[in-house]
User: Fold this.
Amino acid sequence: MVPTAEEALEILRRCRVPRRVVEHSLAVAELATELGARAVVPLDMGLVRAGALLHDIGRSRTHGVRHAVEGAELARKLGLDERLVRIIERHIGAGITSEEARRLGLPPGDYIPRTREEKLVAYADNLIMGTRRLSLEESLERFRQVLGRGHPSIKRMIELHREVSSWLDRG
Assistant:
């Protein structure tokens, strides 16, 4: 099941996701929806909207990197569509490789966004800090400060930016 925006917000409420996280998710959904409206490639906008709203559902359990795994587990228990589960699971940073996941103590797997919808939600999430929109450069600087200047996530974010930008109508 892919919930409507109203249903997604009700899920967040029932799961007791903190209010500031819900406000962040609303800002991510707004940006993802705006970008999706400009896309010249096919996108499932219902899935994007639901994914953006629910991407941080795991923060009802933890605020660490495991929130994506916890959120995916919770979404599966709620019977949500597997495409939505993957958005939740793969949104962290600009993706996490299986080797990085191992080093971080995550369950074995590749956490790189693959579908357009997964990529759009991850991209929008990286451009929102709290509820404030960041420029690409501000987002990259944040990555540098938190992860270190040479971290592979910086290159992945630049690649994600290029790809998502290539989908957008310039008019």
